[in-house]
Amino acid sequence: MKRNHNHNKCKIHRSYTVQEVAELYGVHKRTVRNWIKKGLPIFDDIRPLLILGTDLKIFIRKQRKGNKFKCKLSEIYCFRCRIPRKPDLQKIKFSQQPSGIGRVFAMCSVCDSKVNKYFSWRRLDAIQRELFMESTVSTKTHKYEG
Description:
Blueprint: E1 15-16, H1 18-25, H2 29-38, E2 51-52, H3 53-66, E3 76-78, E4 83-85, E5 93-97, E6 101-107, E7 114-120, H4 124-130, E8 134-137
Parallel strand pairs: 5-8
Antiparallel strand pairs: 1-2, 3-4, 5-6, 6-7
Helix pairs in contact: 1-2
C-alpha cells in the first residue's frame, strides 16, 4: 500500500539513522532500506548509515509528485482502477455544495465502481460541456445511490 508521507516532518539541518526515519514516518526499517535502493542518498562511509534531512525531504517530495494524476475535465479518478477514467454518462449526477463548490457523482465506465469529483463553480460551464449532468441540491445527508 502506497502512502503519501509528509515531507515537512523531517528537519533539513539534521541527520537521521534508518531507525529514526522509520519511526518518523511510521514505516518499517525495511521500507527505508528500500527507499535507499530506489535512490535515497546516504553517507556510506559512516556506520550507522546516516541520511541527511535535506535529501530525505527531496526524496519524499519526489515520491509524492510521482503518485499524482492530473484528471482532464471529462475524467474522474477511479480508486479501484487507480487511474483517471471517463465516467459512465448514463449515471452522472451533480450536487451543489456550500462555499461555491460542486461535486459530480458517477460510476466508472470500466469497473462500475462509484467515483466523485469536487470542482469550483468557476469551472461549472466547462465541466457541464464535458459531462452531461443531472443537477441536484445537496444536503448533509445526501448520498449518491447509483
